[in-house]
Amino acid sequence: MREPIDPAGIQWLRVSPKLAQLRFIREGVTSLIALAIFALPLVFALSGVWRGFPLWLAWLLLAAAVVIRLWRLLLIPRQVRAIGFAERDEDLLIRRGLLFQRVLVVPYGRMQYVDVSVGPLERALGLATLKLHTASPGTHAAIEGLPTDQAARLREQLSSLGEAKLAGL
Protein backbone atom coordinates (compact mmCIF):
# COMPACT_ATOMS: atom_id res chain seq x y z
CA MET A 1 0.00 0.00 0.00
CA ARG A 2 1.36 3.42 -0.96
CA GLU A 3 1.51 5.94 1.89
CA PRO A 4 0.94 9.68 1.30
CA ILE A 5 4.62 10.54 1.82
CA ASP A 6 5.95 7.83 -0.50
CA PRO A 7 7.28 9.08 -3.85
CA ALA A 8 5.26 7.85 -6.82
CA GLY A 9 6.46 4.82 -8.73
CA ILE A 10 8.83 3.49 -6.06
CA GLN A 11 9.19 -0.24 -5.59
CA TRP A 12 10.31 -0.69 -1.98
CA LEU A 13 12.70 -3.49 -1.07
CA ARG A 14 12.00 -4.91 2.37
CA VAL A 15 14.37 -6.02 5.11
CA SER A 16 14.53 -9.63 6.24
CA PRO A 17 11.60 -10.93 8.31
CA LYS A 18 14.27 -12.28 10.69
CA LEU A 19 14.59 -8.70 11.95
CA ALA A 20 11.35 -9.33 13.87
CA GLN A 21 13.04 -12.23 15.70
CA LEU A 22 15.99 -10.01 16.56
CA ARG A 23 13.71 -7.29 17.89
CA PHE A 24 11.64 -9.82 19.88
CA ILE A 25 14.82 -11.03 21.60
CA ARG A 26 16.00 -7.49 22.36
CA GLU A 27 12.57 -6.34 23.52
CA GLY A 28 12.11 -9.52 25.58
CA VAL A 29 15.33 -8.95 27.51
CA THR A 30 14.48 -5.28 28.02
CA SER A 31 10.97 -6.24 29.14
CA LEU A 32 12.27 -8.68 31.74
CA ILE A 33 14.53 -6.01 33.20
CA ALA A 34 11.77 -3.38 33.16
CA LEU A 35 9.23 -5.73 34.74
CA ALA A 36 11.70 -6.69 37.47
CA ILE A 37 12.21 -3.01 38.26
CA PHE A 38 8.47 -2.24 38.24
CA ALA A 39 7.81 -5.28 40.45
CA LEU A 40 10.08 -3.94 43.20
CA PRO A 41 7.46 -1.62 44.75
CA LEU A 42 5.06 -4.56 44.95
CA VAL A 43 7.70 -6.81 46.52
CA PHE A 44 8.68 -4.12 49.03
CA ALA A 45 5.05 -3.35 49.87
CA LEU A 46 4.14 -7.04 50.34
CA SER A 47 7.24 -7.76 52.44
CA GLY A 48 6.56 -4.81 54.72
CA VAL A 49 9.72 -2.90 53.82
CA TRP A 50 7.60 -0.03 52.54
CA ARG A 51 4.91 0.35 55.16
CA GLY A 52 2.29 2.81 54.09
CA PHE A 53 2.98 2.41 50.35
CA PRO A 54 -0.43 1.78 48.76
CA LEU A 55 -0.63 -1.81 47.57
CA TRP A 56 -3.05 -0.83 44.80
CA LEU A 57 -0.44 1.60 43.42
CA ALA A 58 2.23 -1.11 43.38
CA TRP A 59 -0.12 -3.42 41.46
CA LEU A 60 -1.08 -0.59 39.11
CA LEU A 61 2.58 0.18 38.31
CA LEU A 62 3.29 -3.47 37.52
CA ALA A 63 0.11 -3.88 35.45
CA ALA A 64 0.86 -0.73 33.44
CA ALA A 65 4.39 -1.94 32.77
CA VAL A 66 3.08 -5.33 31.56
CA VAL A 67 0.54 -3.71 29.23
CA ILE A 68 3.10 -1.33 27.75
CA ARG A 69 5.69 -4.07 27.22
CA LEU A 70 3.10 -6.36 25.58
CA TRP A 71 1.98 -3.52 23.30
CA ARG A 72 5.58 -2.94 22.22
CA LEU A 73 6.02 -6.65 21.47
CA LEU A 74 2.80 -6.74 19.43
CA LEU A 75 3.97 -3.82 17.26
CA ILE A 76 7.26 -5.42 16.21
CA PRO A 77 6.02 -7.38 13.15
CA ARG A 78 4.27 -4.30 11.70
CA GLN A 79 7.28 -2.09 12.40
CA VAL A 80 9.54 -4.50 10.53
CA ARG A 81 7.16 -4.64 7.55
CA ALA A 82 7.16 -0.82 7.43
CA ILE A 83 10.93 -0.65 6.84
CA GLY A 84 12.00 -0.41 3.23
CA PHE A 85 14.58 1.05 0.92
CA ALA A 86 14.82 1.86 -2.76
CA GLU A 87 17.86 2.49 -4.94
CA ARG A 88 17.34 5.21 -7.53
CA ASP A 89 19.73 6.70 -10.09
CA GLU A 90 20.85 9.64 -7.93
CA ASP A 91 19.93 8.66 -4.38
CA LEU A 92 18.88 6.02 -1.90
CA LEU A 93 15.46 6.19 -0.22
CA ILE A 94 14.90 4.73 3.25
CA ARG A 95 11.41 4.34 4.67
CA ARG A 96 10.38 3.51 8.23
CA GLY A 97 7.62 4.11 10.74
CA LEU A 98 3.99 3.27 11.36
CA LEU A 99 2.45 6.13 13.25
CA PHE A 100 5.27 8.57 12.65
CA GLN A 101 6.43 7.76 9.13
CA ARG A 102 9.69 8.91 7.64
CA VAL A 103 11.14 8.75 4.15
CA LEU A 104 14.81 9.70 4.05
CA VAL A 105 16.56 10.59 0.79
CA VAL A 106 20.34 10.20 0.79
CA PRO A 107 22.01 11.49 -2.39
CA TYR A 108 24.91 9.28 -3.46
CA GLY A 109 27.17 12.32 -3.87
CA ARG A 110 26.70 13.26 -0.19
CA MET A 111 27.82 9.90 1.21
CA GLN A 112 31.15 10.04 2.96
CA TYR A 113 31.37 6.39 3.89
CA VAL A 114 29.19 3.31 4.22
CA ASP A 115 29.45 1.11 7.29
CA VAL A 116 28.18 -2.45 7.78
CA SER A 117 27.99 -3.73 11.35
CA VAL A 118 27.05 -7.12 12.74
CA GLY A 119 26.44 -7.87 16.42
CA PRO A 120 26.35 -11.32 18.01
CA LEU A 121 22.57 -11.70 17.73
CA GLU A 122 22.57 -10.37 14.17
CA ARG A 123 25.37 -12.77 13.25
CA ALA A 124 23.38 -15.72 14.63
CA LEU A 125 20.40 -14.72 12.44
CA GLY A 126 22.48 -13.87 9.34
CA LEU A 127 21.63 -10.15 9.49
CA ALA A 128 23.58 -6.91 9.29
CA THR A 129 23.01 -3.18 9.68
CA LEU A 130 24.05 -0.78 6.92
CA LYS A 131 24.83 2.79 8.03
CA LEU A 132 25.32 5.68 5.64
CA HIS A 133 27.42 8.57 6.89
CA THR A 134 27.03 11.99 5.32
CA ALA A 135 28.38 15.43 6.14
CA SER A 136 25.17 16.21 8.01
CA PRO A 137 25.22 15.03 11.64
CA GLY A 138 21.41 14.98 11.61
CA THR A 139 21.25 12.23 9.01
CA HIS A 140 20.38 8.93 10.63
CA ALA A 141 20.55 6.76 7.56
CA ALA A 142 20.62 3.14 8.64
CA ILE A 143 18.97 0.01 7.33
CA GLU A 144 18.74 -2.63 10.03
CA GLY A 145 17.90 -6.26 9.28
CA LEU A 146 19.54 -6.77 5.91
CA PRO A 147 20.79 -10.24 5.02
CA THR A 148 24.60 -10.13 5.27
CA ASP A 149 25.18 -10.76 1.56
CA GLN A 150 22.77 -7.98 0.59
CA ALA A 151 24.41 -5.59 3.10
CA ALA A 152 27.86 -6.34 1.64
CA ARG A 153 26.58 -5.82 -1.91
CA LEU A 154 24.93 -2.53 -0.96
CA ARG A 155 28.08 -1.34 0.83
CA GLU A 156 30.20 -1.89 -2.27
CA GLN A 157 27.61 -0.51 -4.67
CA LEU A 158 26.83 2.58 -2.59
CA SER A 159 30.52 3.29 -1.97
CA SER A 160 31.33 3.21 -5.67
CA LEU A 161 28.24 5.28 -6.55
CA GLY A 162 29.18 7.79 -3.85
CA GLU A 163 32.71 8.12 -5.22
CA ALA A 164 31.48 8.46 -8.79
CA LYS A 165 28.89 11.13 -7.90
CA LEU A 166 31.34 12.99 -5.65
CA ALA A 167 33.95 13.02 -8.43
CA GLY A 168 31.36 14.54 -10.75
CA LEU A 169 30.89 17.61 -8.52
Map the helices and strands.
Elements: E1 13-14, H1 18-47, H2 55-81, E2 84-87, E3 91-96, E4 102-107, E5 111-117, H3 120-125, E6 127-134, E7 141-147, H4 148-167
Antiparallel strand pairs: 1-2, 2-3, 3-4, 5-6, 6-7
Give the H and E element order: EHHEEEEHEEH
Mean pLDDT: 90
- Judging from the principal axes of the Cα atoms, what is the shape? elongated
Instruction: Tally the structural domains.
Output: 2
Strand tally is 7
CATH-defined superfamily of the largest domain: FACT complex subunit Spt16p/Cdc68p
Question: Biggest sheet, strands in spatial order?
Answer: 1-2-3-4
Largest sheet: 4 strands, antiparallel
Low-confidence runs of at least 5 consecutive residues: none
Please give the radius of gyration in angstroms: 21 Å
Number of helices: 4
In percent, how helical is the residue content?
40-55%
Please give the alpha-carbon distance between the first and last residues: 37 Å
- Name the CATH class of the largest domain: Mainly Beta
Structural class: alpha+beta
CATH topology of the largest domain: PH-domain like
What is the strand content? 15-25%
CATH architecture of the largest domain: Roll
